[in-house]
Amino acid sequence: MDLLMFEKHISEFEFQHGVESGMWGLHAEAPAITWPNVTIWVQALAKYCPSEKCYFRLVLDDYPQSAPNACPWDIENNTVLDTASWPRGSAKLYPVFNPGWNHAQGLYAPFDRLAIPGHDGWKTQYPEYYWQSSFKVTAYLNFIHRLLNT
Amino acid sequence: MKKVYLHGENNRDVKEIEVAANADHNLLLELFKREFQIAEHAGDYVLYLQEDEIFPDGTEVKVEVEIIHRGHYHAHRCKEIKAEVTYNGQTEEFKFAPAATGNKVLKTVLSKFKIAPADATDLLLKVNDETILTATDHIGSFVGHHDCKVCLLLVSDKLIQG
Q1: Which has fewest Cβ within 10 Å: A82, A131, B136, B146?
Q2: Do B129 and A127 touch (CB under 8 A)?
Q3: Host domain of residue B95
Q4: Inter-chain touch A20–B132, beta carbons under 8 Å
């Protein structure tokens, strides 16, 4: 069910528009979906990711009831991106891309399943970002895309 | 067959449908009513092309070439949407077609507030606390036909804090 919902959502206009616009896409050079893991790139300013694409591994079991977990990903070695290479350089980016948080296993954001526990206040502080089961993966991708282009 | 996208009044869903190559205005309106479950006597809907043109009666549906720019239609009972946009305590009024995209709305708003696009990378339009008007949303998707009006906030993207 969770994979079917994910496949449905990425076939819809909102995700496909992002693909057509060069904002994001499934990683093409390896099986992008090894459920529940999905590798996605997000277009970024070169100062954050020199190739202008930052890769993320999303963990999506129980999607969309449960929030995704997204982590910067090293596609060469198929592992979490070395923390020295995490995007950095802006005050807005740093709290979200904080490799010192939670052993660099996710983004510190109200969209991320690893960050949500213990942050009940985010529900009222960031209602537009706090994951709800009505959200689609594009909500998280739009958030990341904005951060990486600011 | 042609692939088209239907946007609707006060409804954020975008319906992707395939229509016959010779589909016309009336068929598209029928499909819109079916897809959005519009009641029989709900009033007169006008079909718009994306951004601002009314899609004329008797016209054949455009062949979709690029999914971003073509093949997007919007049916709405409002002829125009009045938008009140507040930025830094200042409120300005705008009028948009129901099929105006978030992208167009944002550009228009930035121009009115004299904000250069280069200085606006951090700014976004919010319909309410929980909803961001994205580049591809149609403004009519957030507006009912009773008042044909929406209030928007132009704000900086929030800094995430623990």
Answers
A1: B146
A2: yes
A3: 81-156
A4: no
What is chain A's pLDDT, residue by residue, as a tens digit (150 residues)?
799 999 999 999 999 989 989 999 999 877 788 999 999 999 999 999 999 999 999 999 999 999 999 999 999 999 999 999 999 988 889 999 999 999 999 999 999 999 999 999 999 999 999 999 999 999 999 999 999 998
Contact B161 A146 (CB under 8 A): no
Q: Do residue A13 and residue B66 have CB atoms under 8 angstroms apart?
A: no
Based on the fold, state whether residues B110 and B149 are members of the same structural domain: yes
Last residue of a domain, one of B55, B76, B97: B76
Number of cross-chain residue pairs from A and B with Cβ atoms under 8 Å apart? 54
Please count the CA atoms within 13 angstroms of the CA of B112 that sit on its side-chain side.
Answer: 18
For B30, the enclosing helix (H) or strand (E) is: helix B25-35
Instruction: Identify whether B11 is part of a domain.
Output: yes
User: And the tokens for B130?
Assistant: 């929980």
Residue B161 Cα, gap to closest chain A Cα (Å): 7
User: What is the DSSP track for B56-105?
Assistant: -TTPBPPPPS-TTTSSEEEEES-SSEEEEEEETTEEEEEEE-TT-BHHHH
Q: Considering only residues 44 to 83 of chain B, which have any Cβ-Cβ distance to chain A shorter than 8 Å?
A: 66-68
3-state secondary structure of B94: strand
Q: Which residue of B has its CA nearest to A118?
A: B162
B10 φψ region: left (φ > 0), alpha (ψ -120 to 50), beta (else): left
**CATH number of the domain residue A47 falls in:** 3.10.110
Residue tagged 């991106």 (tokens) = A81
Task: Using a cut of 0.80, tell me whether the model's pTM lies above it.
Answer: yes
Contact B48, B74 (CB under 8 A): yes
Among A9, A15, A17, the residue to mutate for chain B (most B Cβ within 10 A):
A17
B127, B160, B161: which to substitute to probe chain A, counting the most A Cβ within 10 Å? B160
Around A82, how many Cα atoms within 13 Å sit in the side-chain half-sphere?
4
- Domain limit, last residue, from B28, B50, B76: B76
